[in-house]
Amino acid sequence: MNILITAGGTSEKIDNVRSITNHSTGRLGKLIGESFLSNGHHVTYVTTPQAVRPATEPHLTLIEIETTKELESALLDQFQKQTFDSIIHSMAVSDFTTETTLSEDTFIEKLAATLIKDQALSDLTTLTEALYRSIDEIGQTIQNEKKIPSGTDRLLLFLKKNPKIIAMLREQQPQAVLVGFKLLVGVSKEELIRVGKGILVKNDCDFVLANDLEEINDKQHKGILIDRDGHTQTAETKPEIAQLIVNSVEEKWRDR
Amino acid sequence: MNILITAGGTSEKIDNVRSITNHSTGRLGKLIGESFLSNGHHVTYVTTPQAVRPATEPHLTLIEIETTKELESALLDQFQKQTFDSIIHSMAVSDFTTETTLSEDTFIEKLAATLIKDQALSDLTTLTEALYRSIDEIGQTIQNEKKIPSGTDRLLLFLKKNPKIIAMLREQQPQAVLVGFKLLVGVSKEELIRVGKGILVKNDCDFVLANDLEEINDKQHKGILIDRDGHTQTAETKPEIAQLIVNSVEEKWRDR
C-alpha cells in the first residue's frame, strides 16, 4: 500500500524569535510509520522539526513542515503527485494562526478612536457591532508593533482560524482509508467516544483514534479506535495503538 | 571558578497542549559550557527541555526549567546555595507570560457589558479609562475558555509581563562577573552596540554579547562583546564567541 502519515505538532510564528507550538513528540506517529514500513508498504511521512521520526530507508519519503499553512501546501502538492491507499493524520495541527500582536496601549488607543468616531455608544447592540468591526479592522490592518515599549505591562495577541486540514482529506483522496485523531483532556470514556464519532462522521473518516491527555504518560497511552459502524477497540500503549491502526487499515483495504 | 550558565529558550503554557516558545537551540550555551568545563571550572547549567547541552560530567550540574517563573525560582534557589564567580545569562527568556485566552465573542460580550454599565462613552478620556479598567478586569478574572466554540474565527490571547531575570542577577550575586546577551533583528552595527551598552549599564553587567538574528546561520554567528569601558570585540562563529566570553571572564576574574 501507499501510505501517507502526518505526525508531530505544527507551530505558528509570532515574530522572528517566538512561536505558538502544539506539543507532540511524534512518538506514536513514528511507531505507526515503522509498522507500515516493516510490513513492506511505502510511507510518505510529513512531520515537524522537533518531532522524532522513522529512520531513513528506501520506502520512506520524509517531508518537514512547520506551520498549518505549510502543511496544507505540502499535502496538496503530494495529492497532485500521488494517490494514497491510506492517510493517517496524527499530527497535532494548530486551529489558529497568529494575526497580529499589540501592546495594550496601542490596542486601546485604536479601539477608543473608532468607537468615538462611530458614535457607537448609544445602546448595547450598536456598541457590540462597533466592537466587532473595530477589532476586525485592528486584527486585519495593524501589523505587529516593531518594538514593544519596555513599559508595556500587557500584550494582546490576535489569532485567526487556520484551514481545517482533516476536512479536505476525503475530498482530495476519496479512495484512501482515512484515519483521524482526536485528543481531549479529562473527559469520560463515553464523551471521548461521542466526540470521536462526531469527528469521524463530519470528516468522512474510516477510523478515528480518540485519546485523552490525562491517560497518556511515559508508560501508558490509552486509545480508542472507532470505526464507521461505531465499533470500538481499545489499546493501552503506543505500540498497541500503532498495531491496532496498521491491522485495521490493512484489513479495511483488503475488504475493498 | 564557579560558573552559572543559562541557555536555551523558555516557553509559556497557553493550555495543556499549546505554548509560546522562545526559539533557541542552546548551541552557543553548550559551547560556552564546554569551554569552561575543559578549563577546569565548575558549571551549573540551567537549560530548557528542547535545547542541546554539554555531556554529563562530574564538574557539571544540570538544571532543567520551562517557564520564566521556573527559571526565577531555580536561580533564587541556587543563589541561596552557591556563590558564583561568573554568570553567563544566554537563555532566551520570555518577556511575557500567558494571562488568559478568549474567543472574540466572549471578549466583546464582556467588554460591551462593562462599557455600557460604566456609561463610559461620553468622551475619549472617559472611554479610554473605561477600556483600561475593563481589559484589566477581563485579563485578571476571566479564565481560559474550557472549550472554544468551533465557529470561533478569532481568539484573543492576553499576555502579561514576566519578571525581568537579568535585572536581579547583580543584586543577588554582586561578586560575579556578569555576562548579559541581547539579540536584535536587522539593525546596524552602531545600533547593536548602542542597545547592548544600554543593557550593560541598566543591569550592571561586566559584558554584554550583542548579536543580530540576520547575522546568524548554520555557518556564521556574528557577535560583539561589549565591556564596561565601551570597548568591543567581535567574533564570526559560535566557537569564536564562546572562546571570547571564556577568555574575557577569566581575565576579568584574575584582575579582581
TrEMBL record, chains A, B:
GO terms for biological process: coenzyme A biosynthetic process. Keywords: Ligase. Gene3D superfamilies: CoaB-like. One of its GO terms (molecular function) is ligase activity. Residues 2-103, 144-250 form the DNA/pantothenate metabolism flavoprotein C-terminal domain. InterPro entries: CoaB-like_sf, CoaB_strep, DNA/pantothenate-metab_flavo_C. The keyword Ligase applies. This is Phosphopantothenate--cysteine ligase. It comes from Enterococcus quebecensis. The lineage of its organism: Bacteria, Bacillati, Bacillota, Bacilli, Lactobacillales.
